[in-house]
Structures are given as C-alpha cells and as structure tokens.
Amino acid sequence: MIKLNNINKTYFGAQPLHVLKGINLDVEEGELVSIMGASGSGKSTLLNIIGILDNYDEGDYYLAGKLVKNLSENQAAEFRNKLIGFIFQSFNLIPFKTALENVALPLFYQGMNRKKRNMMAMEYLERFGLKDWAEHYPNELSGGQKQRVSIARALVTSPKLILADEPTGALDSKTSAEVMQILREVNATGITMVIVTHERGIANLTRKIVHLKDGIIESIEENDPDKMDFTKEIK
Amino acid sequence: MALRRNKLRTILTGFAISWGIFMLIILLSAGNGLKNGVTGNFADRIKNTYTIWSSSTELPYKGYKAGRFIILNNKDIQFLESLYQVEEVSPVQSQGGTLVFGDKSRSVSMEGVKPIYKNIQGIKIIEGRFINENDMKNKLKVIVIDKTTNEELLRNTEETSMIGKMVFINGLGFKVVGVSKGMAFGEMGQCYAPYSTLQTIYNVNEYYQLTFTTKGLNTKEDNEIFKAELKRRIAAIHDFSPNDQRGVWIDSEMINSLETMRIFNTINIFIWIIGIAMLISGVVGVSNIMRITVKERTNEIGIRKALGAKPRSILLSIVMESLVITTIFGYIGMISGMGVMEIVNMIMEASGAGTNSEMGMSVFVNPTVDIGIVMMATLVLIVSGVAAGFAPAWNSVKVKPIEAMNYR
Q1: Which end of chain A is more exposed for a tag (fewer CB within 10 A), N or C?
Q2: Using a CB-CB distance cutoff of 8 angstroms, which residues of chain B are in contact with residue A92?
C-alpha cells in the first residue's frame, strides 16, 4: 500500500533543518502501523508526506502502486479525496458547519449531490452513535464526539488508507480507549491505517511499531495488540 | 460562506461600495440637472443666429466724439441681406405703449417681429400661436401677449381665455392670437406683433436690435471670423472705429452655446473624477476585506484541501464571495441613489422649484442620470470586486495544505 524509498526532507528556514534522512518503509494493505518518536523526530512530517499534504526533496514514494512525485494540485487533491482519510489531533472540523455538513464535505468534492451525500454522511454518523448530534456545530460537541465526527468524515469516502496524527492527543484516557477501539474496528474491515503517536499505550494497540529518531528509522517492532491489557497501558 | 461570520465588517465594507455608487449617481444627476436646467432655457432656440444691439461708442473717430449712440437702420438690414452667409434678417422694432382691455390697462413693450423670431429667441407659446407668415403678408393687427399680462387682464372677469379678444394699444385695436411664457420684466408686459404691421403703422427706420439667421457657419472658428468681419463692416457703415469695443454688440448664439457646452463638459469631467475616486475607494475596501477574510480562512482552506478540494473550487468560493458582496451592495447603492434622485425630481416638478416662472428661466431640471451609465459603473465595480478577490484567493491556493492547516 505504501512504499517509501530513501525519503529525504529538509525545511529551509533561517537554519536549514534536515528532518527526514532517508526513510525506507513498506506498509502492506490492511496493516495497522504506528509511528513513534519524540517530538522533533520527524514523525508528523513523515505522515504529512504519506498524506500528500507536504512534499519531499529526495527519494520515491509509491501510494497504491503509483509514484507520488511532483503531482499537480489537482492530482494531489484527487489522491487525497479518493484514497486517504485523515484524522487529526485537533480534529480540524470546520467550525461554522454542522457535524453532518463536515462529514459530507469530502463527498461534495467528489461532486455528489446534496441529498445523496447527506444521506451517506448520516449513515456514518449513525454508525458512530452521533445521529442525534448531526445538526450540532463542533463547538457544541465534546472532544470524543468531535473525534468520532472526524473519523466518520475520514471514512465517508471509503478510503484505502487512514492516516491519524495523534488521534487521542487531545482526549482523556477513557475517550482515548473508545477512539482506539473504533480505529481498530475500522482496521479490521481491511482499511490500512497509520497512526502517529508518542504514547506507548497507543502504539501497543498496533501490529507494527516504527520507532523514529532524529529523522531515521531506529527500529521496527512487531507487536501483538491482543496480548496487551490496554486499559492499564494508556497513560 | 464566510460572509455570515463577520457581519459587521462585511456590512461596513459593503457600505463603502454602496456609498461610492450612491454618490456617483447623486453627483452625475445633480450635474445633469444643472445642465438640463440651464441649457433648457436655450433648447428651443436655433443655434445659427446672431443678434446685433445698438450701443454707444467709446472711442472718438473721424471727428465724432466718444459716447455717440449708434442706432441701427434700414441700411444695416440691406447690408445684412446682401451677405451670402445671412439666411433671414429679423429686425425687431420696439414700441412702448399702454395696453387697454375693458377697464384694465397695463404698460407694455410691443415688438414687431417676424415668425422666425420665435425660434431665434426660443419663445415658448402656452396658449394659441405665435405670429405667422399670413399675419406678415397681410399685415394683420394681431398680437401675442405674455403670461403675466394675460393673467392681469383676466383677473376678476368671467373670461377664461384672452385668445380672440380685442385689445387696444395706443388706441389701435389688436386681436390676441397667443400667450407666450415669460420674458416679462417687472410691471412691463411684453407683446409681439407682426413686423410688417408695425412697419406700416409707424414706418420706423431705427432699430435697437437686429437678429438674423446664418447658413454655412458651423464651427466656432467660422463664427468668430464672421463676427469680426461683421463688426468691421458695420463700423464702416456708421462711421465708428473698427477697434471700438462697443458701438454695437454682436452676439452669436453658436459661440455662446459652444461656450456653455464647454463649461458643462468641464463640470462633467470633474464629477466623473470624483465619482471614480469614490468607486476606487470602494474597490480598495473590498480588496482589503478579501485579504483579511482569506487570512482568517487559511485553516479552513487547509482542511478543505486535505479533504480533496481542488484549487479551482477554493478559488471560486473566494471570488464568489467577493462577487456577492460587490453585487449586492453595488445594487443597493445604485437603487437608493436613483431612488433619491427620482424623489427629488418628483418633488421639484410638483413644487416648481428650480425654475423661475416669472422670468421663464430654469436652473435645475430633471436631475436624473442615464441608466446605462449607472449600469456601467456598477458593472465596473463588480468586475473590480472579482479582481479584488482573485489575488488573495490565488495566494491561498498556492499554499501547501499542511502549512495552511497549521497557520495560526
């Protein structure tokens, strides 16, 4: 699903910052992978490159067998819309749109008519127990509810890949557990998932843990999430 | 749309646009009103006319002292008729007198004129008719009286119209055939009778005013050359210095009207400059609000991009927003500006303000503006609104989605 060959990325600021120094990583279809590392290790940058939200300087990145390099804005938008679903730490919901409108937005960019996309969005909200909150605005929802809305939004286009950047970072432990449970269930339906986290407890719920340090992959750890007593491990 | 989220700012910016269009319309309308009012006084006059007035000299010449009064006579008429540029000479011979009708009397100035005089002076007939060729040919004793005289004579009588009535001037009976609007000065009435009739009665050879129409003199230059030559020749007839600034006054309607038009064109240019400056301030306002709006929406734009928004859709949404603001508020300004001027126009027409009925002169008439010009101005504003929104929109499209999302 994802194939990274010698990915390099430098931020050119007042002080050039070489954040990724040759990343090689393969993620197979249906895998549940976490990327761990301290802040500044480059894990978010890596996820942004995988999500085509940022570009890279050197190397090759193949997504679903296609080379992602020097894409036009239109091609990138199409990739993101059709293949990838995003879940962010700060939810990134649009504040002046209702939960339903937020979930329906990716379908709008597919050119789906209003009636159909609202119906589909409602289906996904219902799946995550948010049917009664469909007409509410993000600031009327709790953190857990917001994250479930954003998961619904990520899934509504039936993407092949879900990218989650610290999905539980803004949530308490109980809500975190619920959200992780949902993500594991989503993965169980065959959707590939990459989660960036700095919490060991979260990483322990994934099958493959990629340890990133100073822009290089330190180690890749195989893991069996079912062995872990997950309520104790979180925080 | 983002419009909903910042109502006050949107309304304030919109107000600048409405105000720009509004003031442009008010200014243009006021300018038009002034122009219509002033030129309306001459609108019925034909342009190719000249008037020569008697006056006194101010230079001594050939033994004559300065200050001699030059009176025009039949020699001048013959001379004018000999010129190929002159179409028709219309002498004016004035007789003072007392007009008597029943037990009423009023002092009037009676002018013997030709039918063409109506067009030369732009005389407006409000009842009946002016002197015609038949009156001239048959030397009929008919008369056109002015409005004020007409009202005076009809006061406290059963009569409603003076047309067909016989009035007496200096003991001679004249039949009233028309009533003219205005041109009465104070207590003195102004009447017109056929030139031929008065010529038969009084046989005068003295004129204080000669008017004539010309042909083939179309430009200001033509007229100025003709006027200078005319002055020189008349000076020779009456033996006064060709360099005398006075002696006789010569007035060319064509030169006057071109001068008037030039003044109004200048006023018009001035109004347009002010109006366009106001429009520009409106457009700058829109451009500013769009820049701020796009900055505020940077996060949202980043999110939309992550969800698969194409550059075109983002560009379109921002430009549309700008378009909606300028169109709605431009329209409001346009409608209110035109509405205000229509109301002003209605009130003025109802009350007769802006025109002096006693003098028959107007200064401010029909202060409205051509709808085409208004539409053009609004269209220009809308196009500029789109342009104003386009630059910030384009910048936002170029930003990488992750940068936009992380923008604080």
Answers
A1: C
A2: 299, 302-303, 306, 405
Question: What are the distances in angstroms from CA A192 to CA A28, A89, A146, B160, B326?
Answer: 8, 19, 22, 102, 47
CATH for A28-54+72-233 is 3.40.50.300
pLDDT reading at A50 higher than 90: yes
Using CA atoms, how far apart are residues B233 and B321, in angstroms rounded to an integer?
A: 73
Sign of CA dihedral B334, B340, B344, B347: positive
Residue owning tokens 């127990």: A129
- In chain A, which among 182-211 make CB contacts under 8 A with chain B? none
- Concatenated DSSP letters for chain A? -EEEEEEEEEE-SSS-EEEEEEEEEEE-TT-EEEEE--TTSSHHHHHHHHTTSS--SEEEEEETTEE-SS--HHHHHHHHHHHEEEEETT----TTS-HHHHHHHHHHTTT--HHHHHHHHHHHHHHTT-GGGTT--GGGS-HHHHHHHHHHHHHTT--SEEEEESTTTTS-HHHHHHHHHHHHHHHHTT-EEEEEES-HHHHTTSSEEEEEETTEEEEEEE--GGGS-HHHH--
Count A/B contacts: CB-CB distance under 8 Å: 61
Q: B253-296 vs B311-351: helix axis angle to the nearest 10?
A: 140
ipTM, interface predicted TM-score of the complex:
0.91
Looking at residue B390, what is its pLDDT? 83
Residue A51 in contact with partner chain B when CB distance is under 8 A = yes
CA distance A120 to chain B (A): 16
Tell me which chain A residue has its CA closest to the CA of residue B300: A94
Distance CA B151, CA B68 (A): 40
Give the residue with greater pLDDT, B3 vs A34: A34
Residue A77 with chain B: CB contacts under 8 Å: 305, 308-311
Q: Looking at the complex, does the CB of residue A78 fall below 8 Å from at least one CB of chain B? A: yes
Q: How far apart are CA A88 and CA A146, in angstroms?
A: 11
What is the pTM for the complete model shown?
0.65
Q: What's the CA gap between B28 and B407, in Å, rounded?
A: 47
Nearest by CB: B307 against A55, A74, A106: A106
| Inter-chain touch B307–A51, beta carbons under 8 Å | no
For chain A, give every domain's residue range.
Answer: 28-54+72-233
Which H or E run includes B168?
A: strand B166-169
Q: Any CB–CB contact under 8 A between A153 and chain B?
A: yes
With cut-offs at 50, 70 and 90, classify the pLDDT of residue B186. low
Tokens of B311: 């550059």
Give me the residue from A74, A92, A157 closest to B303, CB to CB.
Answer: A92
Q: Does A48 touch chain B (CB under 8 A)?
A: yes
Q: Is the Cβ–Cβ distance between A107 and A156 less than 8 Å?
A: yes
Per-residue pLDDT tens for B121-132?
788 888 889 988
User: In the predicted model, what is the mean pLDDT of chain B?
Assistant: 82
Contact A77 B5 (CB under 8 A): no
Apex CA B341: angle with CA B336 and CA B342, to 5°? Answer: 95
Specify the higher pLDDT residue, B155 or A112.
A112
Query: For testing the chain A interface, which of B1, B305, B307 should be mutated: the one with the most A CBs within 10 Å?
Result: B307
